[in-house]
Amino acid sequence: GSMPMNSKLTGRSYTMFIEAQHSEATKEAYTYFLLKYMGFLSCQTNNTDVLLQYEVKTIQSQIIDYILYLKKTLRSSTIKSQISSVISFYMLNDIVLNSKLLFRYVCSVA
């Protein structure tokens, strides 16, 4: 079998995020989506705590940039689930984002 994804991410923020998920499948998918997001941001570490160092406005800009990037290749339903996991990561670390605003960018193209 494949190596479990969650061995690739570290940090207290990651623990907070992943312990709130109930199924192994969700944990694995959410870890994968978070890894992809960190890759997009060119994070030089596997510690998710680096994602928490920005202002809310900056985080939202980063997510919007990511959505626009994903829109080049993915359908909006796929993007929605990927972005939901990223928003959920921030929410479970007590950073509240304007998800309504963010999801507007997901659906702005057919």
Q: What fraction of residues sit in β-strands?
A: under 5%
| CA-based gyration radius | 13 Å
User: What does the largest sheet look like?
Assistant: none
Please give the share of residues in helix.
Answer: 55-70%
Uncertain runs are: 1-6
The protein's oligomeric status is single chain
Instruction: Kindly report the average pLDDT value.
Output: 91
Structural class: mainly alpha
Order of helices and strands: HHHHH
Give the total of beta strands. Answer: 0
User: What is the first-to-last residue Cα distance?
Assistant: 37 Å
Shape: globular
DSSP helical segment count: 5
What does this structure look like?
The protein has about 110 residues and is mostly helical. The chain has five helices and no strands. The protein has helices at about 10-20, 25-40, 55-70, 75-90, 100-105. Helix 2 (about 25-40) packs across helix 4.
Q: What is the structure about, briefly put?
A:
By secondary structure, the protein is mostly helical. It has helices at residues 12-19, 24-40, 56-70, 76-91, 99-106. Helix content is 58%, strand content 0%.
What's the helix and strand layout?
Elements: H1 12-19, H2 24-40, H3 56-70, H4 76-91, H5 99-106
Helix pairs in contact: 2-4
List keywords for this structure.
110 residues; mainly alpha; 5 helices; disordered N terminus
